[in-house]
Specification:
Number of strands: 0
Number of helices: 1
Order of helices and strands: H
Shape: rod-shaped
Helix content: over 70%
Largest sheet: none
Structural class: mainly alpha
Oligomer: single chain
Length: 60
């Protein structure tokens, strides 16, 4: 058997299955990015109040 002529780019998956897997991966990536940005924005919105709280407890 000549392995150089075998199709290794599509190991038994139909084009529809590959497209579905790609779509699922893109949705997961988008959701992960959205969650990361949401967490960052929530943290940044709290920064001014955190700075104010730490600033009031400083002693000269």
């Amino acid at each position: 058997m000549n392995t150089s002529t075998q199709n290794t780019t599509n190991p038994g998956f139909s084009p529809e299955e590959l497209r579905a897997a790609i779509r699922a991966g893109e949705e997961l990536r988008s959701e992960t990015i959205y969650q990361a940005f949401s967490a960052a924005f929530r943290y940044l919105k709290q920064v001014p109040s955190r700075l104010h709280l730490t600033g009031t407890h400083r002693h000269a």
